[in-house]
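Quick one: structure for this chain?
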Amino acid sequence: MTGVQVVQAAERRTPDDPVLRARDEKLESLRAVAGKLAHDFNNFLVPQFGYVTLLQEELPATSGGAEYLRAMESATRRSESYIDSILLTMRPERQFAVADFAIDAVLNELLDKWPGESSPGTLLEVSREIESFTLNGDEKHWRNAITQLLTNARYALATGGKLDVALKRQLLSGAEVQRLGINHNLVYALTVSDNGFGMPSSVAQRAFEPFFTTRKQVKAAGLGLTLVHGVAHLHGGQVELVTSEDKGTTVTVWIPANTSFAGRYTNTLPSSFAAGGKKKKVLLIEDDPLVKEVIRDWLGRMSLDVQIASNAEEAQAFLDREQGSVALVITETDLKSGKGEDVYARLSNITRGEKTVPWIFLAGRRKPDIAESQGDGKPAPMVMQKPVTLRAFAEVIRRYTPR
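Got it. Here's what it folds into:
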């Protein structure tokens, strides 16, 4: 298993523009609520995955009960996929693969396909003015964001019309930088403009809200502009919408030209995870009853001695008593009593003697803010994104546990 990349969003400031500021604040609040709900649902899925797996081990694969369990597992995975799509829209930093890529090439590729995705016979005119731009960021996120913009334009031009797309280098004034709330005056402006239906002001005011859509007939999720906004902000940029009913819509995405992400990587668990033939002690720091019970049951079947602490105080008391005998510490990113990172900062010194005791973070709606190194050259914790199947979780542990 390779290291897990942990990348922080590009630095931004609060926009001076009151409309942008109010929208950004509202979206951040909505993201927080949606993220909390998705995180809680993730916690419900963990025991579902876990107990389904446990029952599958008990029943013969050819039994009727095993067939029911496979159906339950399939339904749970569909739930997982839906929640994951919401989380990626609300918090695209959950999956963030940084690399240099030609965003102009991505834009041209998607534009080449765009006319063919419209209804046959629709008269469309496309103009483009695209400059070369190598962006340091996540290509997949930008593909999704641009696809959403073009999908919106296709809907607005359902009866035909003109689409203008531009990607141009610009040098903004200091006042404009402050108005937009970005930290660089050298930017590329990605503009997608159509002369289609447009929106009344009442609709435009809600256009970026998650789950808001005017496309009821096609069962749209209403996450398109929310995703565009999240991706732009993640890369230190900003989004503006100008629209008028029956006159068309223009979306401008401001992308800082010199944003660079220094990816930080956690390391894999060390091969010296455990040694000897006796049961290895694992400390699980978890305060959700469902999650801790199913993880304890599963790890217990792996002949691991699982001890549970609900908070940092209980964990510290256990580590003080059992110092030197603990083989692994598992904790949540978000505990009811606080952040998992704070627990790690408080307790990692107890588990970092001559032998390195690995930590695993179970991350929900956000990844833990942990450095690559703790200053002693030893690896940072491994991060596993929830929901996880306990079979995969067990495999990670088995790799570093002698048979």
